[in-house]
Design brief:
The protein has five helices and two strands, in the order H-E-H-H-E-H-H. The protein has helices at about 10-25, 40-45, 45-55, 70-85, 90-100, and strands spanning about 35, 60. It comes from Suhomyces tanzawaensis NRRL Y-17324.
């Protein structure tokens, strides 16, 4: 079981990849396919590359992006920085606070 308080770590990502590749292995058209990754540390771990190569898949890393150009990243950045200042609220109050801060309409 993944502990959400610890975030995504390489071990979680490895298990996810193994599950994905198990599904891909059942479709002969997916043989030697590319697995597209972003630049997260867990995805750049050398053990991840070895697992993928061993299973005869290939890796394609996305180009780095600029947070300023990605609206969802801007949203989460604002939400996190403003939420750090607040105590944990019940769901209804949390939504009201987001509306008050004009983050969520």
């Amino acid at each position: 079981m993944i502990d959400p308080s610890k975030g995504t770590v390489t071990g979680h990502y490895k298990q996810f990849l193994l599950n994905v590749m198990d599904v891909l292995d059942n479709n002969s058209l997916m043989s030697n396919s590319y697995l597209i990754m972003d630049n997260a540390n867990s995805q750049k771990n050398p053990s991840i590359s070895r697992i993928i190569s061993y299973r005869e898949y290939r890796i394609l890393f996305l180009a780095p992006f600029f947070q300023e150009l990605n609206q969802i990243e801007q949203f989460w950045h604002q939400l996190k920085s403003k939420a750090k200042e607040k105590i944990i609220l019940p769901k209804k109050q949390f939504k009201q606070e987001l509306q008050r801060l004009q983050i969520w309409q």
